[in-house]
Amino acid sequence: PRMSCGKVDLGCRACGLSGSRTRVVRGAGDCRSPIVFIGEAPGADEDERGEPFVGRAGKVLTDGIERAGAHRGDVYITNLVKCRPPGNRRPKKEEIEACADNLASELLEIRPTVVVALGLSVAKGLFGMDGKMADIAGRWRDAEAHGLRFKLMVTYHPAGVIYDRGALPRFREDVRAALSEAGLV
Ligand code: URA
Hints:
The protein has 185 residues and is an alpha/beta fold. The protein contains seven helices and six strands; from the N terminus they run ββααβαβααββαα. It has helices at residues 44-49, 56-67, 93-110, 120-127, 133-136, 158-163, 168-181, and strands at 28-29, 35-39, 76-79, 114-118, 140-145, 148-155. Strands 1-3-2-4-6-5 form a six-stranded mixed β-sheet. Helix 2 packs across helix 7 (168-181). The radius of gyration is 15 Å and the shape is globular. The relative contact order is 0.19. The protein binds uracil (URA). Uracil is lined by residues 39-43, 46, 52-53, 55, 57-58, 79, 159.
């Protein structure tokens, strides 16, 4: 499988995050995967290595995928913004907007049938959704972005699951259901 898709400029200066990041973190995985997981933004480990979800949150996500019977290399994993916000703060609206073409280029190349939005910030930033995660998680929606139609699942962000262990069963079940909907398990 191809390991990185779309057009993401590794020297990007489109927003203020370029001043504090170490590396631009492109998505990674199979460019022909039927499923894309979208996180919020790189953290410290990702910023250092230039790969998405390789720290503690990444372990939660990878474990969820493997428990369901799939592998990281079967899916595509990326983020709403490609550079680490200082101190891991939430990305700002203008940063999400400045980075939108990067995610769009990945999605347009992959053309996934299933998208998993990890956390409220992604659900809000990409799909304009609002509300509480407890009400939103684990449901299928028909969604559209960048002219593509796909099944959308919103679930807890794996970094949040580290602190809220009660959300772990829901998170795992949602990952499993999404992989199943994508035909990977
Ligand atoms: N959290 C995210 O949202 N993305 C990563 O790549 C790592 C942690």
